[in-house]
Amino acid sequence: MNTNTHHNIIPISNYAANLAEIEHWKEKYYDLQNQIAELRNKDKDTLVIKEGGIAKYIRLSDIIMMEAESNYTSVLLTHGQHILTSKTLKYWIEKIRDHQDFIRLHRSYLVNKTHIAIYQRLSKCLKLINSHQAQVARSFKF
Fold it and tell me: CB–CB of 105/113 below 8 Å?
């Protein structure tokens, strides 16, 4: 009976190439981990918003406004994107409480004041860039 035990043996050159490729991908992985850590620690003007299981890094300057939708928050961005998060508006207010550009002018709206185009005093309405609008609470004073 002749059994061939050499069928699981790979040439040393293939083995070395596989090890080199594994090391290459390990380096890429660690580089990405370092970049993510830098973003989290260095850039306080960035929010991490999860949508569909994917973490997105959003610059605060790109946010036009956040609108409460029950226990969710709708985030409107300058480039037209709309993100629905499973966090409440109160949660996001806590996250960006030290950022001076955001104002809560109504219980349902958090607005980036750098994106305000027009304030209509009689109708208590803000016109924002990209044709967005936000209602202003009667008690809110500019």
Answer: no
Q: Do 57 and 125 touch, CB atoms closer than 8 A?
A: no
Q: Are 129 and 78 in contact (CB under 8 A)?
A: yes
Q: In whole angstroms, what is the distance from residue 133 CA to residue 138 CA? A: 16
The span from the CA of 119 to the CA of 83, in Å, is 25
The tens digit of pLDDT for each residue in 62-120 reads 999 999 998 999 999 999 999 999 999 999 999 898 888 999 988 999 999 999 999 88
Higher pLDDT, 79 or 140: 79
Whether the pTM exceeds 0.70: the reply is no
Measured CA to CA, the distance from residue 98 to residue 28 in angstroms comes to 34
40 Cβ contact partners less than 8 Å away, ≥ 6 residues apart: 48
CA dihedral 9, 12, 18, 23 (to 10 degrees): 130
State the CATH architecture for 60-135.
Beta Barrel (2.40)
CA nearest to 72, candidates 61, 92, 88, 95: 88
